[in-house]
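Repro case for the chain-ordering regression, as requested:
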Amino acid sequence: MANESEVRGAFDNLKDAILKYDVDAAKRAAQVIVDKGMEPMLAIKEAVAGATGILHERFDRGECFLPHLVMAGDAMMAAGEILESAVPKESIPAKKVVVIGTVEADLHAVGKNIVAMILRSGGFEVHDLGVDVKSSTFINRAKETKADIIALSCLMTTTRPYQREVLEDLESMGLRDSFKVIVGGGPITPEWAKEIGADGYGADALEGLATAKRLAGIEA
Amino acid sequence: MISLLDIAERSQKGRKMAEDSWNMSLFNKISELVKRYGIPNYTSDTSFLNLDDELTERVFHAGVDLLVEHGVYCITTGRIIELTRKEVLDAINESPSEIIVGGGKDARVMKQRKIEGKEPLNFCPGHHAPFTEELAPLVVKNFAQIPRTDFIEGFNFVEVDGREILGAPIEVYAARRQMSWMREGIRKAGRPGLSIVFYPITTRAEVLMAAMDPVDGLRRGDGILTSVLPDEKIEHDLLAAAIACEDYGLWRISGSFSMAGGFCGGADGAIIEGIAKPLTAVICYRVYVNYTGVENVRTVSAMTIPLQPLNWARSVVNQALNRHTNIICMEWVIPTAGPGTETNLLEVAVRSIEATINGANLYAPRHSRAQMNAGQTPLEGEFMVEVSDATLAAGIDRERGSEILVRLARQLKDKHPEPGMSIQECYDLVNHRPTPEYEKIHLKVKEQLASLGLAFT
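-- result from build under test --
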């Protein structure tokens, strides 16, 4: 049985590997945790989540960039698979699923990309549908993936109504209660979110993550 | 120069790649080029304007290499458009360094400027911001009344004839109404031949082309916004519009700045994409006028004022484009604080000074989170010209300019940008002048700039 100092060291190694975007080192660190009989779920909670918090702070300060969030996400996923393989499947909480995209007739991707990466590194399973996404595509993909949340981005005043379109389509299909819907983007305000009946709003990516966690019932 | 039809064909036949893979592959290639060309990362809070002429040559070659070695991605087909070095260099050599926009007595020449050049800047006072339809013709008239205006861009709005704009049919109608309001506004300002640029209601091909109308819409000599997408990507509706517009006789403008923090990496990588992106606009959409430079991925939602290293990176990009290509550079002035505020005018001043010295022209000042009727007033536009003229009159070079920008940045650094006011709250659209309160702020900022060495007349 590993002592507390060994556990701390192993968790720190995993966190460091993720923060260095090193997939192989993250896998090795995760394997050590499993081989030495340490608690895998505690490692996910402490080491992986701890790395996430640091990454988000770095991104917010402009010290790391979108590709680094992708690479850190890859390292987290690789380590997560090893850690989760060591515990019974039924004891692993299912990942919350988000379907995200920029609404129809809008080609702006940057804000949506940031939110997608922040959500992914924040522990969500994210399905990024890209830009100029029709309402039916959002809904069909949300159904296919059994999504918890649909996240709608837009950057143009003239494409804002397509966020409402998704909510109206969900309502008309009797699916409104099946998914939480969050909205964001340059011209989006909390008032607009309220007006169209969205469940949440994020002024920026980190606020979007906090909103998504709240709506998905994940402790912040 | 390679034809737009060649580009269209390559976008249908090029190598397939998933967009996620393209993004990371772009990051890896740019990182490699940063090392190959020794592009420095930002090191100093005092270097607001680049003084290293040899660096501009290196970043130019890095930008060309990015296009030649990595290509351009079409998001519609998921294919890569590959380009040879000769095709890229031909495009650079064969693109014009000046174009005529507008018609009759209102025609203007849009020109590439030079680093520390002495000639007055080309200037677009707005819009690229949302306005309601009842204000539209009056707002356009006010922007057209600014004597130095070389062209005006359209605006977006949520209702047309009292109906919400939703779906292609109404978007097409709204595109045509935008143009008729623009025509009405410039006519009322006594400048019927002033070049107008269509701001896409949405980017569907049918909407982009609906604005073409020799009587009441876009005429030859007018323009359209067809921007290259971030991360070296293009798209078919915009390419279709570029082909139609080229044939019809419209000039194009592209938002060709790169965004640090995205898949290009930090400021060093963004500098390389900042070179490649306007070249992509030339090659893929035949765009000769580009608003260029480097922003940050979070600029549009920034709660703090983005300053260094973006000012330095913008400076490197604009200087490199002016020195090594014919691209007509404009700098987008995108203050984080809203109109009617001192912070907004100080941000406008920073951008206008750096544009003047780096050899860029001035493009559409507009609040970064512009809300309806609250994104801009004619005063910020006129102020851009006042500041650039005063910079030229004082003969401010890169070193002196950097010193001035450092002092202004120090003042802006810890400011929390205010949301600002609506145009009706801080500008008298009937008499074409700011409110007394806004004018007081304007004069105060001018006095401060004069104390730093700018020579206002």
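Ordering looks correct now. Residues 98-451 of chain B form a domain with the TIM Barrel fold (CATH 3.20.20.460).
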